[in-house]
Each structure stands twice: as C-alpha cells, then as structure tokens.
Amino acid sequence: MTGRPYVLLSCAMSIDGYIDDATAERLLLSNDADLDRIDAVRAGCDAIMVGAATVRRDDPRLLVRSERRRAERVARGLPPCPVKVTVTASGDLDPTARFFTMGDGAKLVYCPSGVADKTREQVGAVATVVDAGDPVTPEAVLADLAGRGVARLMVEGGGSVHCQFLTAGVADELHLVVAPFFVGDRRAPRFVEDGRFPWHPGRRARVVEVRQIGDVVLTRYALSDRCPG
Ligand SMILES: NC(=O)c1ccc[n+]([C@@H]2O[C@H](COP(=O)([O-])OP(=O)(O)OC[C@H]3O[C@@H](n4cnc5c(N)ncnc54)[C@H](OP(=O)(O)O)[C@@H]3O)[C@@H](O)[C@H]2O)c1
C-alpha cells in the first residue's frame, strides 16, 4: 500500500468542550443511537486507535458490537473487528485490560525505543509491540500501519492523541458529537490541548454533515481533500 491511511477522528464532548469529567467514573456522553453509529463507523475501518491513558482509564473493548456488521466484514474477507492500536511512552499497560483480552484480532502497541523492552515485558504476550523510534509521531505510526495493510484508521481519543493527529496535519475527517450538558470542571480533560492547528480563523474546516441523533448532535468536518462530501 502506498500513502498513509485515511484518518478519521471521533470524539464526543459536552457543550463546554469536555470529553470526560474529573471523577473516577466513566462519563457517558453519547446515547445508544450514537453508539450504534460509532459501531458502523468502526466496522468500516481497518484499525482503531486510542491512547494508553484511555486504555487505562476507560478500559474500552474497541470491538464491533453488531453481529451483522462483524459477519459483513468476514464476508468481505476481513477479520470480524478492526485491528486495535495504542501508543505508550511509559509502557505502563495492563495485559488484563479489555483492549488486550477482548476479541481475537491483532493488537498493536507503539512505543519509543527506550521503553520497547519494558513494554514487551508488560504486554508482549498479548500484543505486538512496535518500537516506533523516539519520539513516536503520528506519521511514524501511520507509516507502520500502512505497511501492515491498514488503509483506514479511526482514532477514538483521548485528547492527547487527537491533538497530535490534528496538529501534525494528518487527519482527514472529524466526527464531533456534542452531548446536551455541561461538565463545568476545569480539572476534566478537554477535546484537545493547546497547539498550533492547521484550521484556525484564517483557514476554516469544511462542514460536510450535521445530524441530530436523539439528544446529541453530530458534526462531520472534512479536514483534507481526501474526505468525500
Ligand atoms: N469523549 C470521548 O470521545 C473520549 C474518547 C476517548 C477518551 N476519552 C477520555 O480521554 C481521557 C484520556 O485522554 P488523554 O489525553 O489523557 O490520554 P490519551 O490520549 O488517551 O492517552 C495519552 C497517553 O498515550 C500515550 N501517548 C500519546 N501520545 C504518545 C506519543 N506520541 N508517544 C508515546 N506515547 C504517547 C502516553 O501513554 P503513557 O502514559 O502510557 O506514556 C500518554 O500518556 C480519558 O478521560 C478518557 O475518558 C474521551
């Protein structure tokens, strides 16, 4: 495969831009209908990526939930679920996390050279650990994924990972869902951190869709010319 994978970022946030609250509980921002939409988007991708902090905090499964969608993928010659991808600088990952234990598909862990041995000790039995150089960049991850046949990557957060793909200018599409409430606590994480983004008042992103899904609103932004619509 030539070129980097198509990169689709997906995020749900509160009206005031928070992607979680500051409590130990996982904050539910989407609703059932939106979670089903996300499931369909996942089913259309070759790989799903989250940062290591999201693996630790949310313990997500990152699987295609719908049996019909899994069967459709298999009928197309694909594995039932996309490859799972995470990135860590600390190597501090628990092999019993659902990221590793749920689903039979491939799991990839990208890390800097300096922690590759430690990361392999931690999760090498349940995932493929990739020494991605130092520092690990979105471009390096994408180049490696392309080499593994990944043509379409869904990045599901958290803020640190989203921010890096956006500021590196390697995102093609953003699905941003706004939940109808405020978090109102600056200790909570926001969609992105400070940074220099390719989209600013002088270069506005293109809205390709706005859809109400129950009580949330999805806005789809085209971030590159590769995004259709
Ligand atoms: N609302 C949503 O749509 C949504 C979706 C996903 C997550 N979340 C929320 O987002 C929050 C977590 O976001 P976050 O920004 O704190 O963390 P994150 O993006 O999930 O993960 C950050 C971690 O990933 C690793 N990492 C990121 N970039 C790296 C790089 N270039 N090289 C090496 N390692 C790298 C590091 O792991 P190490 O710490 O292991 O070094 C870093 O601490 C949680 O509260 C979660 O609930 C919300």
From TrEMBL:
It holds the Pfam family RibD_C. GO terms for molecular function: 5-amino-6-(5-phosphoribosylamino)uracil reductase activity. The keyword Ribonucleoprotein does not apply. InterPro entries: DHFR-like_dom_sf, RibDG_C, Riboflavin_Biosynth_HTPR. One of its GO terms (biological process) is riboflavin biosynthetic process. Pathway: Cofactor biosynthesis; riboflavin biosynthesis. The keyword NADP applies. Residues 5-217 form the Bacterial bifunctional deaminase-reductase C-terminal domain. It comes from the Bacteria. Keywords: NADP, Oxidoreductase. This is 5-amino-6-(5-phosphoribosylamino)uracil reductase.
